[in-house]
Every structure is written in structure tokens, then in C-alpha cells.
Amino acid sequence: MVLLAGHILSSCFLLTQAVQNITIDVSLDPEFPLVGQDVTFVPKGLMIDVISCLWTKGEKDESFPIFLYHPPPKAAFYPKAAYDGRQTPSFDCSMHIRNVTFDDIGLYEIFKTRKIANEVGEAFLLVTEEKTPELRKPRSLTSGAIAGLAFGCIVGAILLGVMLISLLTMLPSTSDESDPTVVTIMPSTARSMGSNRPSHARMENQLILSSHNVRPG
């Protein structure tokens, strides 16, 4: 019975501790630091009745403490195993890391011990050599670039028009002389032309008459 009662009390105590741990958000400034830059872990939550802040690095199974910090009025700083001299605490329990490298990539967690309820938060630090494509803002065109594009379009249109005109002038031109014209003579016209011409017999008669009228002289 005593063992059973002790087990029940222990379970209730663990349950109470789990309920008292409040999860808080931790932001990074900047969110994606470059190699050689500084980064600051800023935990959310309250700073009322905060006794201490413990920062760790790594997953829960392989977590290494960095430092333990007591905020004012009794400020105190206790470096731990993962501390290398670049980590600095602040009054709001934030952690500043100078000159980050690829070795700093990993999961960081803070444990804020308070008189009423403890707070727990974590953030993953990703260090890159250059800005990530997702964070790059699209560059807007300047007024000079827009004017240059407009001028280029106008010049291109003019050149295209000149080329078209040159091609049209190089094509062989068609004249009226090259087109064969078919002249159709109507039958009535042919008859009229034939009637105006004197026949061969009539011409011979006129020649005979004219020869008789000529007198020798």
C-alpha cells in the first residue's frame, strides 16, 4: 500500500510538473544568418518572477547546456559545457551568439524557471553562405530601366519598319508593257475596214480609163 501510494503521488507530481511547463515561442534575429554574422535568440513569455534561464543546444537525447543565467536584481552568469565564449545572455533571457559558423547549426532550447509556472521554448538555427532564395525580394525596375526598355522597343519597331520597306522596294515591279494585251477585232469593225478598201477589179478599171484620157502631146 505504501509503495502504491508513493507511486500515485509521484505520478501526480510529474503530471503537475508537465502541466506547469508552458511552451513559448523563440524568434531569431536575423531569421537566417549568414556565416560570420551575429544572431539573437529572443524568447517570448513573461519575465515576472523569473528565477533562472538555461540555454541548451541539441536534441533532447543529446542536449548540452550552454549557460545558466539569473536575471536582475541578482544577476549571475554560469557558463556550461557547450559555452565557447561567443554566447552572451541579456536581461530578458535572450541569447546572443557572435560570428556564427556552420558548427552552430542545430536546435536550441530555453528553460525559464519561474515561481509560478516554468516556460520552455526552442528554435532551430540555420546558417547559410548566402541569402536563401525564399528571402530574396524581387528587384523592381527603376525609372531609368523602364525608359531604356521603352526606347529599345521604339527603336526595334523603327528598324523593323525600315526592313519591311527595303524588302518591298527590292521586289520586281510590274508595268503595263510586260502585260500582254489581247486586242479583239469585232466582225463589224472588220467589215467596215474591208468596205473602205477599193477592190482589185475597180482599181484596174480606173487605170484603163485614165490611160485613154491621156493624149499624146
UniProtKB/TrEMBL annotation:
The protein, known as: Carcinoembryonic antigen-related cell adhesion molecule 3
UniProt organism field: Podarcis lilfordi (Lilford's wall lizard)
Taxonomy of the source species: Eukaryota, Metazoa, Chordata, Craniata, Vertebrata
Residue ranges crossing the lipid bilayer per the database entry: 145-168
Coiled-coil residues: none
Keyword tRNA-binding found: no
Signal peptide (from-to): 1-18
Keywords: Membrane, Signal, Transmembrane, Transmembrane helix
